[in-house]
Design brief:
The structure holds 2 protein chains of 2 kinds.
Chain A: H1 2-12, E1 28-38, E2 44-51, H2 53-56, E3 71-78, H3 81-87, E4 95-97, E5 103-107, H4 108-113, H5 117-125, E6 134-138, H6 143-148, H7 157-171, H8 180-188, E7 195-202, H9 205-208, E8 221-231, E9 234-239, H10 241-250, E10 257-263, E11 266-284, E12 291-305, H11 314-342, H12 349-356, H13 358-365, H14 368-374, E13 376-381, E14 384-387, H15 395-404
Helix pairs in contact in A: 10-11, 12-13
Chain B: H1 2-11, H2 47-58, E1 64-73, E2 75-84, H3 90-102, H4 115-126, E3 132-135, H5 138-146, E4 150-154, E5 160-163, H6 193-203, E6 209-216, E7 222-229, H7 235-247, H8 256-263, E8 275-277, H9 280-288, E9 292-296, E10 302-305, H10 316-320, H11 323-352, H12 360-370, H13 377-397, H14 403-420, H15 426-441, H16 445-483, E11 485-486, E12 489-490, H17 500-503, H18 533-540
Antiparallel strand pairs in B: 1-2, 2-4, 3-5, 4-5, 6-7, 7-9, 8-10, 9-10, 11-12
The chains are: A alpha/beta, B alpha+beta.
Chain lengths: 405, 541
């Protein structure tokens, strides 16, 4: 009899979903994006973008489609992030599941005034959240609105934003992926400060958070907008355009980008595609204030040429290379000037000095804020133009030749 | 004496006579006839007595044929030809026994003068069958009759002639049904031991091929043959096999599966410890590796010992095709075995514990499919697996004409409709389908069955402990496999204990030229299979 009872209870076991840590897929709310903001009363306000799987996956589920939104955003308050997260359970029908979250959006206002420190611990501590979650700062808007914005191509906007960053990082080079791990690393390590990508909304704010947004011909869109330069955990300044790319260049994170140079007296008429680049940083520890030498080795292709130049002549190419060197040097120099002016070492010169001469670094470290802007930086570029694409000289050159004849 | 004859015959060129001569139930039957009622007394010299005795002992069966003859062999003799219908080849009896007895060779001058003399005269001159023996007691007489021999009794002499004209209906040699190959011999064993031994002898025409016969089963007296190659197989192994066979004291051995249970090393395991095959080429190949084979009359399945786990993943075709495709297919089979073992468990563990490991887009799909499924993933998987097992069992057992109905119900109703009714998610159908197909791709049915049985506990464990539990369970299974032995040979060899030379024929099938030696743990002394062609060539030039 006892055996029968044991047997029966064993059989019923699988039907009872009481096992620790076991969650069926339909008991989970898959969070794709997390937003962190402050409420007016100073409490932490967390937003969670949660996917509606049956709307997102193709050909399965409810049918019809469009009856329910692809995702929804829950917002809740708490004294800290953990409290806000658990507080959200009053609204969510299922357990929030963070393993697939791709973006973490912080509020510009909060990181400017209160700093970034209080927001990151739980995200990096929770075993569920991946350390590859990309960190963004909502620039000119708030995290809630960013997460609520409906996207046009990918069904989930958090997914789309993360993909945007991946693509732009590969081909444009004004932004680099900064996941939570890298942010924390650059905050902790000696003599370096984080830079974090900015994310803005362009278009009609009101329309962005309605389902109409992806039906509209001109939807409101999220786009990457510069990189935030931090100092002591607070947002100091936004680095935009060539400043941002210059920083990425020095940090040796350029995958590919486009640089314009003059040709035959025509301004910005040749577009050079950087295909890979290597940067060497060297610290010269002689003297009281260290000197740093930056050498960049970009490898490039000619991508566009709107001038009558003879590319079959190697001297033309050498000339272009020289111009390109100048252009790169100028850009890098400008960006270094920019960060020195902000007195924040996002490039990691301090780390470089620490690695070169730890003893000296210990001396400099205390007044690094004052020393950093004074560091003399020389920039040199040694670029190579490898291939002109599938044609050699531009047709404008041939036109000119015809005319001359 | 019988042994000598055996050897002489096997050396002769005649293929018909190549078969081992065994007057079934004549000599060896006396070994185990301890309790079967019939007395060991000498045959009476009166025809009435003998016939009455046989009829009484056998219960006067309808299929017992007693043909009385009045012969004139020097003197007038009453004789009888006795046999059991359907066990004998009646054509042969009519032609080579009865007709020959009735037409006495008149040209011989010394006609016998006594019953005894005429007995031997008939034995030597009047029976044109290959095998004729004289027997003296009733016991052998009955056993011989029941084994399908024909008794020729001459009145007045206390001996009986036993002629072998075994016949009756038997299945022809057909293509194997459970081990199909595209390239390779297409013959399979039949139910007749004689035929089966012949099939192997035709492949290995060596005087070293030894066939030892015995009978097992107190009631059934099933003929059994032990095959090995004298200089290759380890004598200790042969001795061990013989001991284990002789130890069996059972009423009946009807199929080699029953025999397998008697002689295997470990009873409580789901893994088969003896390899069984219905292909003569597989038996020949294994004998040449130094293994021994046990054949049982009445079944085409031959047992091979010792057995290694990797054998179940070797198809004879591996050796007939090129080594590259052979190696690829063999690795595929190992993979497929693992799939059939753990595919549902992985699905359960992934979807209930480790959702973080699923690619995001796939997770959306899976989550959407799970939407509205009322059961936990484990129950869902269990339902589908059991349904599949039911279908498979029904597919094997059902009468052929209803087969169509079952497949329609199975495929359409249970697959499609279960999804539409919201009982299971579509991806579950895929998982079960993959598992099912994978289990059929394992060449050995026996080891596919092990995977089939282990699947369920593994599913349960991964539904409770996730990958952690699954990993532990797999470790336990591997530990168990390592602990198994088949006739003293580690089951997991050559993987554990590791042997580089033998690995050439484990996960891969190396080119035949490179497999110079026989498996190390099986053939102990005579290990060299072939000389190294490469070195030979270089020496010659």
């Amino acid at each position: 009899m006892k055996r029968i009872t044991l047997f029966l209870s064993l059989i019923t076991l699988p039907f009872l979903s009481g096992c620790w840590d076991q969650h069926e897929l339909d008991e989970l709310s898959i969070v794709m994006g997390i937003g962190i903001d402050r409420a007016d009363n100073g409490e932490m306000r967390a937003s969670f973008q949660v996917v509606n799987p049956s709307e997102v996956s193709p050909g399965i589920g409810g049918g019809g489609g469009g009856k329910q939104p692809n995702f929804t955003v829950y917002t809740s308050n708490g004294k800290n992030l953990m409290e806000a997260t658990r507080n959200a359970s009053r609204q969510t029908p299922r357990r929030l599941f963070f393993a697939h979250a791709r973006i973490l959006v912080l509020s510009e206002k909060v990181v400017k005034e209160k700093g970034i420190y209080d927001t990151l611990d739980m995200i990096s501590r929770d075993p569920e959240v991946r350390s590859t979650i990309q960190v963004f700062i909502a620039r000119g808007t708030d995290p809630g609105t960013i997460l609520e914005t409906f996207s046009a191509i990918d069904k989930v906007s958090a997914d789309e934003v993360a993909s945007k960053l991946e693509v732009s990082e590969k081909v444009w080079g004004e932004n680099i992926g900064m996941d939570i791990n890298e942010v924390l690393q650059s905050m902790i390590s000696q003599g370096s400060e984080p830079i974090i990508n900015g994310l803005s909304l362009r278009g009609d704010d009101e329309q962005a958070i309605t389902a109409k947004n992806y039906e509209a011909g001109k939807p409101a869109r999220l786009y990457l907008n510069g990189m935030a330069v931090f100092k002591h955990g607070k947002l100091k300044k936004w680095a935009d355009g060539s400043n941002a790319r210059g920083i990425v260049f020095v940090k040796d994170n350029i995958n590919s980008s486009v640089i314009n140079i003059d040709c035959e007296g025509k301004k910005d008429s040749v577009a050079i595609e950087v295909v890979r680049s290597k940067v060497e940083l060297k610290a010269d520890m002689k003297g009281e204030i260290p000197r740093i030498k930056v050498t960049a080795y970009p490898e490039t292709n000619i991508a566009e040429a709107n001038c009558p130049a003879d590319f079959e002549n190697k001297d033309t190419i050498f000339k272009l290379e020289k111009l390109l060197n100048k252009e790169v040097e100028k850009e890098i120099k400008a960006s270094i000037n920019f960060v020195q002016k902000q007195k924040t070492d996002v490039i990691g010169f301090g780390e470089l000095i620490y690695r070169t001469d730890p003893k000296k670094w210990r001396k400099i470290r205390k007044h690094w804020d004052k020393t950093f802007p004074k560091i003399e930086v020389t920039v040199e570029a040694d670029s190579r133009i490898r291939r002109p694409g599938i044609r050699t000289s531009p047709f404008q050159y041939e036109l000119k030749n015809e005319a001359d004849r | 004496m019988k042994k000598n004859r055996n050897n002489r015959h096997s050396n002769s060129m005649n293929e018909e006579q190549d078969m081992p001569v065994n007057l079934e139930g004549t000599s060896s039957a006396s070994e185990n006839n301890t309790d079967d009622g019939a007395s060991n007394s000498v045959v009476s010299s009166s025809i009435e007595h003998v016939i009455t005795y046989i009829k009484t002992e056998l219960g006067n069966p309808g299929d017992l044929v007693v043909r009385h003859l009045n012969l004139e062999v020097g003197l007038k003799i009453k004789a009888a030809v006795i046999f059991i219908d359907e066990l004998v080849d009646s054509q042969k009896i009519a032609e080579f026994v009865i007709e020959r007895l009735q037409t006495v060779p008149v040209h011989i001058k010394d006609m016998p003068a006594t019953f005894g003399e005429s007995f031997y005269f008939i034995k030597e001159n009047s029976l044109s069958l290959g095998t004729v023996a004289e027997i003296e007691n009733y016991n052998d007489l009955l056993d011989g009759l029941l084994a399908g021999n024909t008794a020729i009794y001459i009145n007045g002499f206390p001996k009986v002639l036993m002629a072998e004209a075994i016949g009756g209906s038997s299945r022809a040699i057909q293509e194997p049904t459970s081990e199909v190959v595209i390239r390779g011999p297409k013959e399979a064993f039949t139910e007749l031991l004689k035929t089966n031994i012949g099939l192997v002898r035709r492949k290995i025409r060596s005087s070293d091929l030894r066939v030892e016969q015995m009978k097992l089963g107190r009631v059934t007296k099933t003929p059994i043959a032990l095959l090995y190659i004298n200089n290759i197989a380890d004598p200790k192994l042969i001795e061990e096999m013989k001991t284990r066979l002789e130890r069996i004291d059972a009423d009946s051995i009807l199929e080699s599966g029953q025999l397998e249970e008697f002689i295997q090393d470990e009873t409580f395991t789901v893994f088969p410890q003896l390899f069984s095959t219905e292909r003569p080429d597989v038996v020949a190949g294994d004998l040449l590796e130094g293994r021994v084979a046990v054949m049982v009359n009445g079944t085409p399945f031959t047992l091979i010992a010792p057995t290694q786990f990797v054998q179940f993943f070797q198809s004879p075709e591996d050796y007939y095709m090129r080594y590259d495709i052979g190696s690829f297919l063999r690795m595929l089979r190992f993979f497929v075995f693992i799939v059939s073992l753990i595919a549902p468990s992985i699905y359960i563990a992934l979807t209930t514990f480790h959702q973080a490991m699923i690619p995001t887009t796939l997770l959306f799909g899976l989550a959407a499919q799970r939407e509205g499924v009322p059961f936990p993933a484990f129950v869902e998987a269990l339902m589908m697996e059991i349904t599949f097992e039911i279908l498979r069992e029904a597919g094997i057992r059902m009468p052929r004409p209803v087969g169509v109905a079952v497949s329609i119900v199975g495929a359409l109703v249970l697959g499609q409709a279960a999804v539409q009714a919201g009982l299971v998610s579509p991806v579950m159908v895929i998982v079960v389908g993959i598992t099912a197909v994978a289990s059929f791709a394992v060449p050995s049915f026996a080891v596919a069955t092990s995977a089939r049985l282990l699947r369920f506990p593994l599913m349960l464990i991964s539904s409770i402990f996730g990958f952690y539990g699954l990993t532990l369970a797999l470790i336990v299974i591997i530990a168990h496999l390592t602990s198994l032995r088949s006739f003293g040979v580690p089951y997991l060899s050559p993987i554990a204990p590791f042997n580089m030379d033998d690995m050439k024929d484990a996960f891969f099938r190396f080119p035949i030229k490179s497999m110079l030696k026989r498996p190390s743990l099986i053939s102990q002394k005579n290990r060299v299979r072939m000389t190294n062609h490469e070195t030979q060539k270089s020496r010659g030039e």
